[in-house]
């Protein structure tokens, strides 16, 4: 890159920003990106570099300026300009018919009325204001009259425009207030929970809780790390330049060639202004409405977010305004709730599982039931607050469903079915496994076992250490680990490297051959790259991607151990919370002992490979997904190869996926990739190419 003068930089920065905004629009709003992720990243990095060199050019609406500011002590309350209403619900076809009749009566119209149908997104409602085209305020719904100021957190949601797009005639609204929903996609929710589990943090009950918890963080940097998305469905107020009326509220009529006198028109106006909007359909007769609801019910599973119903709104906004509202909901709108895929079952017991970091997770043991395609016999209750909130007791009959379509969740207790024999769950003050003291630290939802040598923690730590994404020691699974812990042969992960084939043969069900194989696998793992070792250490908040960043930045374990907290926070991905966790963890005697043991027993923590993994290579900047089995290569080998060639692996297909490799017996990932138009590569082609070190 040539060195630009400040004057030249002004122009380049302007161009980059407008290009980046255009690409964000195509990606988030039109759902039709025209460049690859890596090309996009290149533009973004160039802008970041220029802004670093010429800080005076930074403006608050720059695409780089989403995360900023300090942790705030609390959210400010702000009154809404107009009440933020909710919807009345319908559960049957009959109720929908009654609604349609009522609207027609009230409207006194003879002709048929048109309705718009949109999925009811299961997230949390937000109201955003834009002044002179710039995002100026983000509020939660609150009690409908007053909301909380979450502006800085909303800024971090990438699909929220920081400035509005110009309408075709070159104007932007003087003032705009819109309403939408912040949510977490189903697959992002599952991934986030997996990540939290790996990092020893309590998991979220469902996508909505995860979204709400993420948006209500006092530190916007935490929000920024959560994959929040937003969709917008209501124009609440709009003032175009040159119009003196205070607000034209709420129906602007004909606007810049876009018809906003209808709900469909308003959605198209929102889209033109740069907001992602939900998919929608329209219907006029009752039959059409019912058919459309049925169709949405079938489509529901394929939507990327959880939805519990369909919102039906009269399309004509002027007519809707005239019909007004009753109490808290407009007369011209209705939420039709899907019959939920929910079942009843009994809580047989509540047990505690001790995680790697000592977190005690209460788990309901259930009478087995089938729900959403599988048999479920346990459901995590997450933490004390959730048990208390739902008042779940042992012996209760409960309603169960799958959150995000995947994770079994106790929805509620059927209190009418109580017999009086139910027992409340009491948190023990001693760990059920090691007898160590159990504490709930201030500000945390979880109870932890503080026992320094808790076998349950040790077991989880070892499982994590040997797992595929960490040191990848094949053959060292939970059963062998249990035997090693029980026999006292292994007291920390370091002891794995002191094991002999003779030791392993003494364990139950371990023969000559499996002992040899395990010793080989342990030997092989001594060569794993530094990033994997850092991840394997199981430091709280240090997940896979943080581990890669740390390995790349520090280059050796010693450098990482010697880094000051300030140096740690210089690393991309590493915030003060993570830095603090690293410092605490490395100061613990058990950790220093573990690290010196690992070194002494020949664990190399090679660095060069990390560097290679991250820089250059034909897959640089690409995210690959594998589905089905590959000829002549294990999944593990294929993943290593992809990382070596600069690529990233993801377990699920999304719009961010660059390539999907399809082997034998592919799963639903293939359909999804086809649906999204993602490039598909047959496995044999992939194997042939990577064995020659080539990409595509
Ligand atoms: S329209 C006047 N459309 O569902 C009410 N709401 O009570 C305007 N929601 O809290 C709401 N998706 O946050 C509307 N496509 C959609 C929606 C939607 C989700 C939420 C909204 C509200 C609740 C309805």
Explained architecture:
With 696 residues, the chain is of the alpha+beta class. The chain folds into six domains: 6-66, Orthogonal Bundle (Helix Hairpins), CATH 1.10.287; 89-337, D-amino Acid Aminotransferase, Chain A, domain 1, CATH 3.30.470.30; 343-426, Beta Barrel (OB fold (Dihydrolipoamide Acetyltransferase, E2P)); 455-525, DNA polymerase, domain 1 (Orthogonal Bundle); 530-611, 5' to 3' exonuclease, C-terminal subdomain (DNA polymerase, domain 1), CATH 1.10.150; 614-691, 3-Layer(aba) Sandwich (Rossmann fold), CATH 3.40.50. It has 25 helices and 26 strands. The strands form seven sheets. Strands 16, 17, 18, 19, 20, 21 and 22 form a seven-stranded antiparallel sheet that branches. The protein has a five-stranded mixed sheet with strand order 2-15-12-3-11. α1 (6-29) packs antiparallel against α2 and α16 (530-536) packs across α17 (544-554). The site of 2-(butylsulfanyl)adenosine has 15 residues, from β3, β8 and β15.
